[in-house]
Amino acid sequence: MDVRGKNVFVTGSTRGIGEAIAIAFAKAGANIVLNGRSAISSEKLAEISALGVTCIGVSGDISDFTKAGDMIREAQEKLGSVDILVNNAGITNDKLLLRMDAEDFKKCLDINLTGTFNMTQHVLKQMMKKREGAIINLASVSGLIGNVGQANYAASKAGVVGLTKSVAREVATRGITCNAIAPGFIATDMTDVLSEKVKEQVTKQIPLQRFGNVEDIAKAAVFLAENAYITGQVINVDGGLVMHG
Ligand code: NAD
After folding, report:
1. What are the residue boundaries of the Ketoreductase domain, all occurrences included (predicted)?
2. 12 CA → ligand 1 middle, Å
């Protein structure tokens, strides 16, 4: 898809990977919907509008099914359509399984997996009528190989992978693609909470010997939206941490 002039909804785009994805699409000429749980600041909107595209803010919690529908409708009413959805919003809530209570588990699933389902179901109705669209979901290498202390997060992201492949199969005949990106360790607020010792240990395991930048993920997102012949794939952007056989 030629993303110029298209409308891109990026969930959780007030900071980190989501913000970088929004900026990369804006630089490629797409209009942007910024989203976060609370109101989007006028500075953030101005920063992206300064790239010469339209940028609006639509705030709300993606884990609320009704709110997700309201947000997609608001974006469609203001911009005419949502052509690309990037399901980026996500949380970690790390604990060893034996210390994880049911609420710790559920909260991660509710936002990372159910939130992705909520936004995808609401956006697909219009995309199917238009017979064009791209959905890009943020998974994680944790969802592919597991991680100590992340049973909830890894389960949610493995779920995102399964959701991605099923949606890709269901909507391919309508000209809609659905893919996932599995980041490794990317320098953001989410990984900033790791101790220096853990960061050092992790870096040693990464063949490219460094944490990734948010721009590394953003480039992959634009690439997936632009290529209408890639669907149902999980693209690892992880410095070689996970290599498929
Ligand atoms: P981050 O914590 O810096 O930002 C997350 C964003 O999501 C924030 O803007 C936050 O407000 C928003 N958000 C959280 N819950 C929300 C909700 N219920 N409704 C709406 N918005 C909500 O995270 P990040 O590091 O930028 O990660 C972005 C995505 O990439 C996440 O899905 C994460 O799981 C995934 N990921 C990140 C890494 C990494 O190393 N940083 C690795 C693998 C996967």
Report:
1. 6-184
2. 6
